[in-house]
């Protein structure tokens, strides 16, 4: 899906860790082959061109499309896989597939691991006793910098914005890019819906944090075009190393 995935497993013997990581990576390659909008032969590309009917797609593709409809309902229409005019469930698939990869590591016996899929992160347990995982929230104006560090156990962190890939997230009601924001980061209990809510929040533009505030179990941080950083009321409990505010 045009990104890099990193896996950090802390509590399995090397042979079991290698086997678990190999299985997780194989799953992610399968997802790429099935759902990639960059591969002409993927099921999603064939669906978009009308060469494949939904009822003839694989069970995984049908499941994802049903969940995308649920995401559209949950977000009041701001998560829309056809916002760009073509079928593109990538905004759902990345979080969903990484969460599934996490379940494979759990099934292999790991209770202390972290997966990073292009900046969308799923953490379980602790990297070492008494210390939570630390996830840096990237500064959209400085590729080598960060705004703050989110720290904890059993959490997910997802960012949506225009800094890395330009205006790829659109307001589905106007058809244009959201106004008033450069990036939104959302913290939640698992990655599938954390990623969905990050995308929907960014699509809402200046109303992003009001939307995140309305969600149970989620907190967010937003960055405006002038560099101003704002947070939901509960975001601070995740912060342990704030960067210098812009």
List keywords for this structure.
246 residues; alpha+beta; T-fold; seven-stranded antiparallel β-sheet; 6 helices; 33% helix; disordered C terminus
Describe this protein's structure:
- There is one protein chain.
- By secondary structure, the chain is an alpha+beta fold.
- The chain has a single domain, classed as Roll (T-fold).
- 33% of the residues lie in helices and 22% in strands.
- The protein is built from six helices and nine strands; from the N terminus they run βααααββββββααββ.
- The strands form two sheets. A seven-stranded antiparallel sheet has the order 1-2-3-6-7-8-9. Strands 4-5 form a two-stranded antiparallel sheet.
- A hairpin with a 2-residue loop joins strand 4 and strand 5.
- It starts with a strand and ends in a 15-residue tail after the last strand.
Number of domains: 1
CATH fold-type name: T-fold
Based on DSSP secondary structure assignment, what is the total number of beta strands? 9
The fraction of residues in strands falls at 15-25%
Question: Compute the gyration radius: what is it?
Answer: 18 Å
- Architecture (CATH level 2) name: Roll
User: What is the C-level CATH assignment?
Assistant: Alpha Beta
How would you describe the oligomerization state of the chains in this entry? single chain
What is the percent of helical residues?
25-40%
In N-to-C order, the SSE pattern is: EHHHHEEEEEEHHEE
Which structural class matches the secondary elements?
Answer: alpha+beta
- Span of the ends, CA to CA: 32 Å
Instruction: Describe the main β-sheet briefly.
Output: 7 strands, antiparallel
Mean pLDDT: 92
Strand order across the biggest sheet?
A: 1-2-3-6-7-8-9
Poorly predicted tracts of residues = 241-246
Per DSSP, the total helix count is 6
What is the assigned CATH homologous superfamily? ApbE-like domains
Shape: globular
């Amino acid at each position: 899906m045009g990104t890099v995935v990193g896996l950090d497993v802390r509590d399995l013997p090397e042979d079991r860790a290698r086997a678990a990581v190999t299985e997780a990576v194989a799953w992610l390659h399968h997802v790429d082959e099935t759902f990639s909008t960059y591969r002409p032969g993927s099921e999603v590309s064939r669906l978009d061109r009308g060469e494949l009917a939904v009822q003839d797609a694989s069970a995984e593709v049908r499941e994802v499309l049903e969940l995308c409809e649920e995401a559209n309902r949950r977000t009041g229409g701001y998560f829309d896989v056809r916002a760009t005019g073509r079928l593109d469930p990538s905004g759902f698939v990345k979080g969903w597939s990484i969460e599934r990869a996490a379940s494979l590591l759990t099934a292999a016996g790991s209770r202390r691991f972290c997966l990073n899929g292009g900046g969308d992160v799923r953490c379980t347990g602790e990297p070492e006793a008494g210390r939570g995982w630390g996830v840096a929230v990237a500064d959209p104006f400085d590729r080598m910098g960060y705004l703050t560090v989110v720290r904890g156990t059993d959490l997910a962190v997802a960012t949506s914005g225009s800094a890395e890939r330009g205006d790829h997230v659109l307001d589905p009601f106007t058809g244009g890019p959201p106004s008033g924001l450069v990036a939104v980061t959302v913290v939640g209990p698992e990655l599938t819906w954390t990623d969905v809510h990050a995308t929907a929040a960014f699509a809402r533009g200046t109303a992003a944090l009001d939307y995140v505030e309305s969600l149970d179990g989620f907190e967010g941080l937003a960055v405006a075009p002038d560099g101003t950083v704002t947070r939901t009321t509960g975001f601070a409990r995740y912060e342990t190393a704030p960067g210098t505010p812009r």
